[in-house]
Amino acid sequence: MASDVRVDRGDRGAPRRFALPSLLLRGGRALGFEERVLLLTLSASAPALVVALLLLWTGDHNPKLQWSLTVVLLFFWWWLAENLRYRVVRPLQTLANLLSALREGDFSLRARQTTEADALGQVVQEVNAIGEILREQRLGAVEAAALLHRVVEEVDVAVFAFDDAQVLRLVHRAGERLLVAPADRLLGRPAGDLGLADCLEGDEATARILSRTFPGGPGRWEIRRSTFREGGLPHRLLVITDLSETLREEERQAWKRLIRVLGHELNNSLAPIHSMSSTLARLVEREPRPDDWKEDMLSGLDLIGNRAEALIRFMAAYARLARLPPPRLAPVELSTLIRRTAALETRLAVFVERGPEVTIQGDADQLEQLLINLVRNAVDAALLTHGTVGVGWTVNGTHVEVRVEDEGPGITNADNLFVPFYTTKPGGTGIGLALSRQIAEAHGGTLTLENRTPEPGCKAVLRLPV
Hints:
The protein is an alpha+beta fold. Helices cover 50% and strands 21% of the residues. It contains 11 helices and 16 strands. It has helices spanning 33-58, 63-104, 119-154, 173-179, 183-186, 191-194, 244-285, 293-322, 334-344, 364-385, 432-442; strands spanning 2-7, 16-21, 25-26, 29-30, 158-163, 168-171, 208-214, 217-230, 233-242, 330-333, 350-352, 359-362, 389-396, 399-406, 446-451, 458-465. The protein has a 5-stranded antiparallel beta sheet. The protein has a 5-stranded mixed beta sheet with strand order 11-13-14-16-15. The protein has a two-stranded antiparallel ribbon with strand order 1-2. The model is unreliable at 1-25 (pLDDT under 50).
């Protein structure tokens, strides 16, 4: 009678089967490890016991002595087997307890090191080393989790985590303030009851800006969503950021810049108008009038008219910047648009670098106006130093980059580049770059200007999605 027991060979193929004799079976099942150790120990020492008993009972000895020695031999035989079993099994039980503690997350237990450099001592040393490594990793994870929790608590951004059924599973302090309720009253409630169901809708790749009122107050909010898995189950992360204060600060700064520019422009026009009006009034009141009073009157009125026209042009430029319509997207051949724009400049030949054929979605009229502004500024700068102007473009992944480079004097004040109505050119309106950046951002792109290095001049880079 035999029984098959699987012994894993690792990854070298199918497990082998070893047949165990029926001697190692008890009650139809295989004996345990401890029982097998005891049985093998008894079996190994049984021949010596049999020989000793034969010598004892075949000799001419006192029967009483024979029975006494037989009992002693049997007892010593059994004691020796039990002692050997204990010395084999006890270290394994200790290692099992250590591994069980590690599995349960208790990394404080250690096995006593043996001084001998034997196989058992090496096993104990390795288990202790594993426990120490796991303890350090657990300590680092706990500290990192505590730091992350502290940072999240201090950030003034509402964070919510919902499970696949849109039931709230996590909320922190800012979320409690937003919904004006403690966490124990919020956890376990569906998103619909919390008024957050609509915030979970939409594309996760793009952020939304909503104007709405939460229990914590009204405002403008940025809504971001993402997904993660916990315990193998999908969850949704909702992050709500209050933009009201940031937008109000930006609005205040914008008003300050606008008032500063408007005040500067109005003073430049109204001051000479006021001065000339007073001069003309005194001229009319003089008796007798000078012989050339008519020429002075016409000259003064001409000055007043010129300044009034400048104010009209200034207000028209402001209206143009403030009323830029949204782009009407259509397929645009970029190379054709660039070449046509470069050909419009007649003061200086603009070199167009050959680039890849690419079609983008955009408003051709607005993009042409943007490129005209960039090329015109580049030519204005190049004429000061008798330099050249070049235009080129490349495709980088999902974006196309259009470069307008000149050999002019470069940028001297980068802080005011995109400030509306700020200009250093005589007769300039100061809205060209501001309008160009507004057009670029309306198309989902960016516009940057920087000095070229080490070559002289400036480089304008327009990035647009392909």
